[in-house]
Amino acid sequence: NGSYDASVGCKDVGHLHRTVLDVKTRSVVESVRVGDIPSDFPTISPRVVGQPSRYAYSVVPQDSFLNGSDVAVHGDDAIPLFDKVIKHDLASGTVASTYKLPAGRVCGDIIFKSKSECSSESVDVSENGYVLVLSHAVDADASFLEVVDGATLQQVCEIEIPVRIPFGFHCAFLPAEVLSTWRSQ
Prior knowledge:
single chain; four-stranded antiparallel beta sheet; 2 helices; 6% helix; Carotenoid_Oase; metal-binding; carotenoid dioxygenase activity; metal ion binding; carotenoid 9,10-dioxygenase
């Protein structure tokens, strides 16, 4: 729901920043925190990397973690359980929308997969695609790929993965044609 009491603070969870670099002088021109909601694993459309982008996406820890409890234990480190994806409006510094994972599921990093063609003139190129969310059932040996529309942040579909994928697994997206060339080598 995007609620977060900034006065409470929270453990080692980052905040989204927009940083502008001058590659000629090798210096930071500007670094601005985008919003007050702690989040992690930010992603943008690959079509706008290195260019101005209106929207970005990241994952948000469970509200109970933000208020001081509910962590997953991984080795000796307590890590947050992420149960929301937020769409950042980088122009206004606000949260444009929130996708809440189904009850009992958490996720790690997310991937943005651009659509091959623009679906509508009213859709910005930075939201014209899908947010791919690898989610895990907290109390069961089940993992899912949730496909979420980048413009509306509504779930398009979910696919149950036939094996359990562990917490902390990082994601990548490769098109079928790339995978087929790898198989032939």
